[in-house]
Design a protein that fits this description.
Strand content: under 5%
Radius of gyration: 19 Å
Number of strands: 0
Largest sheet: none
Helix content: over 70%
Oligomer: single chain
Structural class: mainly alpha
Length: about 140
């Protein structure tokens, strides 16, 4: 098998992994009933964007679709920082109320270990990075 075919298969595999990451995260959020606040709908929108972008890059890998996918994955990865902030802020507020005399560092550590998983939104960052990597230097982006 020549290197171009191997690279094409790796790209397809990475897009499938990115889509799978988004799909499984969607299922987890549904199980967690992650929709009590308006901001909690953000990951659903990002997941939908990720699934659409991954599918377009996989099934219609034109220059336009690859660029759309790259921008979408970048938006998803950066926007997941909102989730990290929300999770940390919720945990921090809780621990500040419980331990009003604790130092800021102690509160940050407790917030990271808190009841709301602070690093959970990172799964969207991971999906975005994998999806973006699948389109890096994609042949459809070469000038014709």
């Amino acid at each position: 098998m020549n290197p171009d075919k191997i690279l094409a298969r790796l790209r397809e595999f990475l897009l499938i992994i990115a889509a799978g990451t988004f799909a499984l995260t969607l299922i987890e959020l549904i199980f967690l009933e992650h929709w009590n606040l308006t901001i909690q709908f953000l990951p659903f929108a990002l997941i939908l964007l990720g699934l659409i972008a991954s599918s377009l890059a996989y099934f219609r890998p034109s220059r336009r679709m690859i660029r759309f996918t790259q921008w979408s994955m970048l938006i998803i990865a950066v926007s997941s920082l909102v989730g990290f902030y929300e999770h940390m802020a919720g945990n921090y507020s809780f621990w500040r109320e419980i331990q009003p005399n604790a130092s800021k560092w102690e509160l940050i550590v407790e917030a990271l270990k808190g009841g709301i998983p602070a690093l959970a939104p990172g799964i969207l960052t991971l999906g975005g990075v994998i999806g973006w990597t699948a389109t890096y230097k994609h042949p459809s982006l070469e000038s014709k």
